[in-house]
Amino acid sequence: MPSPRLVLSSAVRAASLAVWMWGSTATAQTTSDTVVGFARDLTTERYLYTEVHELSSAPDGRVLSGVSRYFDPQGREVARKTLDYRFHRTVPRYRLDIPAQGYAEGIVAENPDAVAFKSYKGKEERRSLPMAPAPVAADSGFNQLIMDLWPRIRAGETVRFGLIVAGRTARYEFRARRMEDVTIQGTAATRVRVEPDSVLRFVVDPIVLTYDIAGTRLMVYEGVSNILDPETGKVYPKVRITYGGPAPAEARWPRP
User: Fold this and answer.
1) Is residue 26 scored above 90 in pLDDT?
2) Cα–Cα nearest to 170, from 203, 201, 126
3) How does residue 242 score in pLDDT terms, banded at 50, 70 and 90?
4) 248 part of a folded domain
5) Is 90 exceeded by the pLDDT of residue 163?
6) Is 24 left (phi over 0), alpha (psi -120 to 50) or beta?
7) What pTM was computed for the model?
8) What are the angstrom distances between the C-alpha of 150 and each of 3, 25, 56, 175, 213?
């Protein structure tokens, strides 16, 4: 069963993906984008997995839906997630399945409360969680929330918000603050620290996100993974995921 460290990971990391467009196609009604992330062990640099996120957006840029797939170094799919943003911008309905672990989680409703569930080896738990006070996000809706709060983060303000974590069937209070400006591959960027706004920060490691200066593109993620190590059955404790640039030689996934 996923570790309590997923309090941060399952909502924050997966959420910040919908910002780097690897490739896109458009119709009169929607735009389809594919976001690819490459994950390595933060300490050893060992290649761990590849993330492929297919997103559908409205003409005005609103994300409507998405499918996320995760592939091990051999190119085998190990997890899949479906998302629907049409009912709420920052608290999408979603379902994550990790078949080899017999695990699933998600959100099935969000009006007036969010209804979260998790299932482990056939045993399911559901709980209604408060949407108020705002702002609040869940899973990949965290990206929209960060964009909404970006002017305040860039200005140096510590911003606070609720985070609904289906994997824990609970809501937690979090905070984010700007750390420093950096340059990555010639691009100006800002590093942001995200951590619980409670005593949990003393037992849960923070996550560091690096965005472009405009706050529209995630470039690097550093922190706990939301994918389980098949050798241990536990989450990878410290990963670095990069978005954009050439694919590493070790990355394997079904390409068009």
Assistant:
1) no
2) 126
3) very high
4) no
5) yes
6) beta
7) 0.86
8) 29, 27, 23, 13, 9
